[in-house]
Amino acid sequence: MEKNYSQNDIYKRRVYASEVLEKENKEILLKGWASAIRDLGNLIFVILRDCTGEVQLIAKKDCKSFNEIKNLRREDVLEVEGKVVKNEKSPKGVEVQIRKIKILNKAEPLPIEFSGKISTDLSKRLDNRFLDLRNPKNKKIFELKSKIVNFSRNFFYERDFIEIHTPKIVAQGAEGGSELFPILYYNKEGYLTQSPQFYKQMMQAAGFEKVFEIGPTYRAEKSHTIRHLSEFWGIDSEISFIESYEDIMNLLENMVCYILDKIKENCSEIIDYFNIKFPKYKKPFPRITLRDSFKLINRNGTDLSNEEEKLIGEKVKDKFNSDFVFITQYPFESRPFYTMKNAKNKELTDSFDLLFKGMEIATGGQREHRLEILKEQAREKNISLDSIKFYLESFKYGMPPHGGFGFGLERFVMQILNLENIREAVLFPRDVERLVP
Question: How far apart are alpha carbons 59 and 65 in whole angstroms?
């Protein structure tokens, strides 16, 4: 339906680049950046970019603003009035004949090339991230990331989960002290949260039964890899009255399949833009014990290295035609103290990692809900009971059997889009060296 706005209502009269095709033979108002300029003497072409895409503008010598257009610089901010005309040779099949142009702001010479036509070092791109993100391909990474957050939230809401928001400044880490970021909290020592784990479990004691959280976590890992960050976003969930950790794996694979189905339905344009194959997935995902996963690659160990995860991912793809696999029954020595030990073999745990194309994207399992056993397991890990007293208190008054998972949002995006470095899936990454911008 045609919108009827007064001629003076400039903001509402504005047309976006994605809408121009529908406005043939009409006078429109555009706003955006001069993405490219081609001066042919008596004819000037300008590609205008806004948040929805690009459109070709044309100025002939008889245009009143012709001299002003000749002085345009790339990335100048523009307001353009003109008429939409048909031109089959233009990218959209139409172009806008400029009637009037206003330069809202001038751009200085650019410090990096962000069009993608010339390769630029990632570190330099991140130093100039606000420019780097003007590349439509880079912007689409975050369009997809935003959609995934929305799809995951809908998944939980449809199943009557409660969204919670746990503290990001804490007195004790859930995973251990070596990866904590200490902060001065008034006259006390505090830390940035490693995980919402303790608080998710406390919500089970509170009787919430089904909770999820989407938020940042912090790990002081001195890792210089393509898959590690000091600040990342997780999708966490915890549920009560489970029968076994199989219930948690079922919940997680249902969430992953739900998100992937929604991406197929709603984000095919983004997937096509990256020219990638969509992940192979089908419920139930393959489930392999850690011991058997090592047999797949003829190795031994108590935890998987990055290289071993990749090798297992390749083997699983060949054997099961799946990009996803659960690795189960990790030894207690490589899992947090709150993980439930396996009933048949106390050296193992009822826990898992989910690998996606050979990279761990989620960790979870059943938690130990019996207070005395939990205390004993904390002692085994040399954790002071006084330091986790607030957490242990919640187990005294009726803690149900429960479990949950933590899911890495950026790693998921990285693997879907086949990004070379996880930092590409973060607006302003934080790692061992980078604290700005």
Answer: 8
Place of tokens 């003829």: 298
pLDDT digits (tens, 9 = 90+) for 69-98: 999 999 999 999 999 999 998 989 999 999
Do 205 and 399 contact (CB within 8 A), yes or no?
yes
Collect all residues with Cβ–Cβ distance below 8 Å to 72 and sequence separation of at least 6: 34, 37, 46, 78, 103
C-alpha–C-alpha distance, residues 56 and 75, integer Å: 14
Which pLDDT value is given to residue 5?
Answer: 46
Phi, psi angle pair for 380, to nearest 5°: -60, -30
Tokens representing 427? 């607006």
307 Cβ contact list (under 8 Å, min separation 6): none
> What's at 343, amino acid-wise?
A
- What is the model's pTM? 0.93
Which whole number is the average pLDDT over 140-148? 98
With a cut of 90, say whether residue 10 has pLDDT above it.
no
User: Which tokens sit at 249?
Assistant: 């794996």
CA-to-CA distance for 178 and 180, rounded, in angstroms? 6
pLDDT digits (tens, 9 = 90+) for 186-222: 999 999 999 999 999 999 999 999 999 999 999 998 8
- Tens of pLDDT along 372-387? 999 999 999 999 999 9
- The mean pLDDT of the chain is 94
Residue 223 pLDDT: 83
Strand segments, DSSP code E, in 140-198 are 162-163, 169-170, 181-185, 188-192
Please enumerate, as own/partner, the contacts of 222-228 that have beta carbons within 8 Å and a separation of 24 or more. 222/432, 223/431, 223/432, 224/431, 224/432, 225/306, 226/420, 226/421, 226/422, 226/423, 227/306, 227/359, 227/411, 227/414, 227/422, 228/422, 228/431
Task: Single out the residue of 63, 55, 129, 140 nearest to residue 99, CA to CA.
Answer: 63
Closest CA to 198 of 228, 176, 229: 176
Q: What is the DSSP string of 192-259?
A: E-S-SHHHHHHHHHTT--EEEEEEEEE------SSS--SEEEEEEEEEES-SSHHHHHHHHHHHHHHH
Length of the chain in terms of residues written: 437
